[in-house]
Predict the 3D structure of the following.
Amino acid sequence: MDRCLGIITTLERDSNFGGICKNRPSYMLPFGGRYRLIDFTISNMVNHGLRTIAVYTGEKIRSTMDHLGDGKPWDLNRRINGLFLYPPINDNHVGTHFGDIAQFYSTMEFFDRTREEYIFLSNPNIIAKLNIGDAFRFFIDTGADITLIYREQLDPDGNLINCDKIHVGEDNVFENLGVNLSTEKRFNHYIGMAFVKKDIFIKILKDSIEQGNTNYFKDAIILYKDKYKINTYEFKGHVETIRDLKSFYKANLNLLSKDISRELFFQGGAIYTKSKDEPSTLYTESSNVQNSLIANGCVIEGDVENSIVFRGVKIGKGAFIKNSVVMQKSVIEENAIVVNAVLDKQTFIGKGVNIGGSILAPYVVEKYQRIVKE
Amino acid sequence: MDRCLGIITTLERDSNFGGICKNRPSYMLPFGGRYRLIDFTISNMVNHGLRTIAVYTGEKIRSTMDHLGDGKPWDLNRRINGLFLYPPINDNHVGTHFGDIAQFYSTMEFFDRTREEYIFLSNPNIIAKLNIGDAFRFFIDTGADITLIYREQLDPDGNLINCDKIHVGEDNVFENLGVNLSTEKRFNHYIGMAFVKKDIFIKILKDSIEQGNTNYFKDAIILYKDKYKINTYEFKGHVETIRDLKSFYKANLNLLSKDISRELFFQGGAIYTKSKDEPSTLYTESSNVQNSLIANGCVIEGDVENSIVFRGVKIGKGAFIKNSVVMQKSVIEENAIVVNAVLDKQTFIGKGVNIGGSILAPYVVEKYQRIVKE
Amino acid sequence: MGNKVVAMLLAGGQGSRLKALTSKIAKPAVPFGGKYRIIDFALSNATNSGISNIGILTQYKPYLLNTHIGIGSAWDYDRNIGGLRILPPFTSEEGGRWYTGTANAVYENIDYLDELEPQYVLILSGDHIYKMDYNQLLNYHKGKKADVTIAVMEVPWEEASRFGIINVDEKDKIIEFEEKPPKPKNNMASMGIYMFNWKELRKYLRKDNKDKDSVHDFGKNVLPKMLEEEKKMYAWNFKGYWKDVGTVRSYWESNMDLLDDKNTLNLYDKSWRIYTKNKNLPPQYIARGAIVNNSLINEGCHIMGELNNSILFSEIIVEPGAIINNSVVLSNCTIKSGAVVNNAVILEDTVIEEDKRIGEIGDNKIYLVSGKKIWEE
Amino acid sequence: MGNKVVAMLLAGGQGSRLKALTSKIAKPAVPFGGKYRIIDFALSNATNSGISNIGILTQYKPYLLNTHIGIGSAWDYDRNIGGLRILPPFTSEEGGRWYTGTANAVYENIDYLDELEPQYVLILSGDHIYKMDYNQLLNYHKGKKADVTIAVMEVPWEEASRFGIINVDEKDKIIEFEEKPPKPKNNMASMGIYMFNWKELRKYLRKDNKDKDSVHDFGKNVLPKMLEEEKKMYAWNFKGYWKDVGTVRSYWESNMDLLDDKNTLNLYDKSWRIYTKNKNLPPQYIARGAIVNNSLINEGCHIMGELNNSILFSEIIVEPGAIINNSVVLSNCTIKSGAVVNNAVILEDTVIEEDKRIGEIGDNKIYLVSGKKIWEE
């Protein structure tokens, strides 16, 4: 796997996430009690032996730099290869600057310098514990120029409307890429992961820029689909697609399923993240916790049910938390009631405050926000 | 000195540097054979015991991230304190965003979180091996809120026109800050270094934003000069002020003076930089080098005089280099003649090519540029 | 504290009274407090006090200790300049030399100290559980212009005869040492933490090394010798939690201390964190039906049964119907359905089988439990 | 090469024939080639070959070697997972055990290897100067489905009797070892580089450890034993520069090799860099009037005199009028005005006084020069 570069980039719009993406790109959203979304993508790459990983960051780069930094938690703080962060540039000499192609092209020196011959692309907003090694062998053995990874999805509720829909022909041949409008009960969901030969990748970048016919790599695949040998690979595991507040909230609560948490947390290796050195969590006599994931460093004196509680949260006596995502260092005081809510980092819910949303549209408390009873 | 934060920021305009600042901020300019300008500022801080250093970067952030990274060469890759990079933001909620005050204010969390009570400000475009410890003791002993560091300069040629001119009263009292128009033979040059009590610094940021009367910290000092106790401290060593191509070129060549190079390279501790692991430099039988600084990894077969040669440069037989700055990995082929020139990284001067500028306006060859004989 | 202070951390102790807890590892590597190892406390104190250089003197079964410390990154000691250095015994032309005592271990590493040119050398032990700002000790030492300052603390009178007791004059100047005195004159015990002026220490280490009657121990030889020769020696009075975990019972007690409201070893204090190697585990999961009372639980646990007054390390499975009371459970254990465990210390990787019963709540015994054997104490 | 290969680097050698060059340090720490130490070559080969885990077996005077290696950051081995581990001797209940031979040193660290669960173990020596891609050796080893593969190289026939000679059949399968044979049957010498299947090695190390007649050496005991028991052993033919610097003269010669046009140890090859600890020195300054011919100069030097065919390490001052011919000058030396030095190896921190003369250009002797003494060879 050290023959493969890891490339991480997303096209998701932060505006779909409401207040929780005001100061962070969506791939930096807290997830699963102690992680950020992007931790899953990077860790899965590292666990499968990728040694050079480039992240094309969003505009709000400070949180990314703070969290990923030199890549130490992933042992990517290397002199030779390791982690590279590429914030967007908008002052080069290559015409328009929207789209991922201009950003990839602006780092051509990186593609030239690295010795890896293949590229593994991944979208950090889609969590899937792909066995990258197996998929890579398929890509190599079939002699494809590009292999796109998809998951067959049953989506009766239309949760995946507007997701990428891939059309697969016989022998896994790639036919086309469209958008799921939920007209069919089942569809093949392109999960934003793909293998590409590096020389083909570079050729596509250059062609797209010279021809001026597309700004997005995804569009270029459609455009050049007859020019290259493109096939598809089916992933059969669990997929979380985090595109907006609702899917973010749901993906967190899904972790209370033993099968899902086992797959996402353990399969194929540990998930690494920036360590915070919190002590163990203390449960007092008055606490009552049911079906919840609780991170370290919390002091729990109240009731918690069906919830995800992040690091260093304090829950007072008689407080009641249900179906909620409570992020790092939040404080919920005595007798407060929080139901169907997403509490961002370091929020404060005062004594006796009662907040709640619906399971389809959770109540959001923004970072640093304080809610107290008048 | 671990009571003092280091803050590095510059207001120099990259446009004054011509082609050599196209893709890098001026504080990232190569200097002295193997360094970048900012290495001197950071190393001097580290050598004087500062443990927390924040760099407010320019817009062209990629080269800064690549070079400073996690701060490893300065041992600033720490979990507790260390190096922080703050790229400019332009999407906060604090009115106008030009000026350094908005940028400082956007990192208020950093100033709140760190335990240091004092701030040492420094401009990376001005190189001066200030004994920060001595100056800090003066600042503390005189009980000042702010201490500005200056150098008395004799500037008959007007090289320092438009530099900050500080007016010093009796007992080192700060009187005012203006601009040097070279009407006097001597003037006191404010060298962009200052100590500030952190609480006063924060107060000035907040006041400036609330009052809306200034966007620059330097202006705020003038504005609030009667409100706080501000004094000055005289630095007596060598100062290089790198404001444009000419001063950049001159500062490099000044290193051929033994006194200057000894002061800048050795006084108060080593200058750290990102290491490149070049082997020693090989001088062949045909080489002839006179009064020059040569970095490692070069192969020198030709003549070099009064020049600064960076890492990994190749100079062919019969080539002649004089009064020039030749940056990293450039190749000068046989019998080429290069006089009064600045060759950026990885330039190529073909066989027999003859280039030259004047000592006041050096000939510039931009990064990756190839000059060959027709 | 910059380069002026270099800490030397003695981490070679075997700790044989801890029985199976130290069968494979040195005492400083014994797990403590739900997620730490004992040495984490001294290491975290050092890094929080701003000590940049620390030498760790190892000898007995250092493998796991070395794995735990790694390159020191958990404590921010993975530096290019200075940082942490593991100092095991080595050979020279005269052959190999094992460390024969605490003072000898430091003596053998005079080269390391000479290169760093410290002004002060701080001797620490990797066996103790406490939080201390060594800057306070240093400032006291400087203020007294002492040659050596010993950190001391009040111990209960009835226990004083188990310690090295320090008698001082009215200005806290040391006038007498009593090693485990049957009738102690006071109850101020040495904590085994010494701040030396390096020049003086260097002299006495060389002297001690030549002394054939010496066992090369700080407490027994070097410090008494300095007192004899009228060096300026002061006692610095430390107030706070401090424990030298000597036996299985005191090990269990110190862990249980953490569940006590009045416990003064506050692990949640963000201004003085205790750092340890990160295991990269997911959060703990508390299932529907679980009961958790006054307990500490660490990452990666899966709790379906009942816990009362217990401390669980990482990746422990407590099956439905299992009950754990007043116990310390080390990592990777499984407590099966129907098992009841009281007053126990359960070693790593142990499986407690279904319906197994260990101890009774009020029986005043401590059980050390491994997969193969149960020791009572 | 991932976790499948773990390298064990033997770095405990004293190298006594190098005289004053190894009076304070182990042989792998001896400076070489203008800015390196000998061990840099094996370490850089390992990192360039993608080996993530490397254990360094130290014993003799490891202090400077440990300082040089630090946390391994120069070779990119400062990892949280895996990376570099220094493995000195240690004690257990049965007391301390020094390493008694190359095989014993690895045997004593079976715990380290067991934890990493490698498929292959690569044995390296820290004494050799060469560039090798260990992946080629590994691929050959895999292709042959061998139990062990030994890297061999052709040596001049007249020198063959100084080496361990390996005789193979037509398929490169090893059929005989000859340790320093007076009449060698061929000139393929073992380079002391072995790729083992870990399972086989583990078995033979345990067997060897019990054998009271063994001196616990790979070349003398373990490999012959494996051959005797008909394990699949192959020789892999390495072509390229390789030197085991044994004497002061061969040390001087190997350095001088670097100034030879036809030298095959290309240090300028960017695809296979040799890494070393960074000294953070400014560029070298060549003054007006200096003469430099066919010489290598490192950072921090200040050259005012004349150099011919010489290698200068760092921070060396050559005063005006001083002349250095065919010499190797280690760091921090000063060659004063009027001094003439020929065919010398000048040790660190030496000052050559004004008008001093060492050697004559054609005298065919090598001079090892310290501040106190000059050895001739």
